[in-house]
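Attaching the record inline, Q. Sequence:
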Amino acid sequence: MSIRIVRLGTPRAPDEGLRMGTVRRPPRGVPKSEFASQNWYDVWYPNLAPSVETMKLAQQAESPKDWAAFGKAYRAEMATSENSRTLQLLAALSHQTNFSMGCYCEVESRCHRSLLRSLLEDNGADLSAS
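Structure, as predicted:
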């Protein structure tokens, strides 16, 4: 069992399980009834998305220092008691069932999902290699 970190909207992997969208906003122009069938997500969980202010840091990041500032801000948001408990819960669930989490960004290394992967690992999650 494991968590797969994915780009939302991409084809699902076999045995991927439930797909969670850790994004601030739903996909544009897609009827809510088609989110799952179009491989966006089954459950929307914006709690694990960066705040609007923090996301602006990522979008404006032009240097490693800028990206580090985004990472610091996002990690601070995820360190709140509510988000910390959510990460602990998801890490524990990863040992019982398959599910996936993701965002729309094309490149994971320049997306909050790369940091989310790290935070889940820090909490002992079982993560899929891809």
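Residues 3-122 form one domain. The radius of gyration is 14 Å.

More tomorrow.
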